[in-house]
Amino acid sequence: MGTILPTTRSTLPLDRVITNHLPPSETDANRKLKVHRKSRRGCGNCKLRRVKCDESKPRCKKCTTFGVFCNYDGQYSDLQLSVSGAANIETLQILPHSLKQTIPSPVAPLSRIRSTGSLESRKAIYDFREQDLELLNKFQTRTVYTITTEKNLQFYQKETIKLAYSHPFLMHAILSLTLMHDRYLSAAPNAKLSTTEAFHWYQGIAMFNSKLKGTIDSSEGDAVYATAACLGVIAFFYIEAKTPEEAWPLKPPSSLDLNWLSLSEGKKEVAKVSGLGGGKSFFPTLLPFENMKPNPSSPIVPGLEALPFEFVQLCGFDASSTDYNNPYYAVALSLAKVLNSDCMLTTILGFLCFTMRMLPEYKQLLKRKDPCALLLLAYWFAKMCQHPHWWIIGRAAMEGQAICIYLQRYHGAETDILKLLQFPRMMCSTVV
Predict the structure, then answer these.
(1) How far apart are CA 230 and CA 226, in angstroms?
(2) For the segment 247-294, what is each residue's pLDDT rounded down to a tens digit?
(3) Residues 6+ apart with CB under 8 A from 295
(4) Are 431 and 385 in contact (CB under 8 A)?
(5) Which residues neighbour 261 within 8 Å (Cβ) at sequence distance 6 or greater?
(6) How far apart are CA 159 and CA 130, in angstroms?
(7) CB-count exposure of residue 84 (10 Å: 0-12, 13-18, 19+)
């Protein structure tokens, strides 16, 4: 047990010992107390940030340095970014380093994003917040690495943010996507869609649709395409089903069935109407899958033998099969290239290629729940369960199990189908 020393002058700090020995008059003369004037008249932003406001009007120095409008009179909302002159340059000092490199100089951040709802006459104002800057930094330093390849990274990491500041539909899409990634990485990844996620997602889609209905300038092509890419990832990630019975193809038919397929097809149309490929876009050299075209004269590649023989029989493949005469061929070809691969990157790239190259005929077969089309999709989902990726794994596991149950239930008498179901059933059911 330690010894507790008595509180004597010898144990007090040296300056206190000396002070206690001075006469009262000398003590009072040396002790100059600084009087602090307390004020509650500071601006709301400083109170919110818990910093001392110098109360200069119309703008205090703290808000000027931070790059926001003072809200003494309530004219501006909390932490509304300033878009005037020097404040823009000063704002740059408080941004993360990665954002400093991408925001144009002089900085012109959005102080407000005007959003259009379902009715043109119904409009709302969204105030850009400090938290949104944090989300943009997360998008650049984390989320962007999960939605593109190293070849595309430079564009998504830098150019996309620049475009988002002048194209609100892209800004909303990025914020929603990053919030969803945040939720996936949280302690409750299976939580419901938050109000903020839903807000940005809805506004992004509403404004994007409004843009597509109008005239798209050639300078807007990259922003439009980047928005389509982000919304495509969001649509694939978001799945309401909690059990396989609630997932497609088991659930009752809905207009939202296979909506991620529609978005993948929509990206191609967006590329056409937005003028991509005219030499001024970042995308023609960054998206190799878009430039892949079927070769009707090419024979079956050796890798197609990687597929189980039952696929050859069910899908009717032979040496003359091409994209033009067999709707399953392109899907089977892309699947065969990754089926025996243990490389996560190769698998994910193959999956992206698969979603981009699906022919309309194959999509129609999926919608009709054709067994061969369902089996090929189930195998793709099984491969993605083998290499889990945050925005793919949820749908791959849930709809993969649902496809297996559907085929077992309605095609259980067919021996080849039952045999082919073993691999997807095993892979999709092992994901928690």
Answers:
(1) 6
(2) 999 999 887 788 888 766 555 566 665 555 444 454 444 343 333 344
(3) 322
(4) yes
(5) 355, 358, 363, 366
(6) 21
(7) exposed
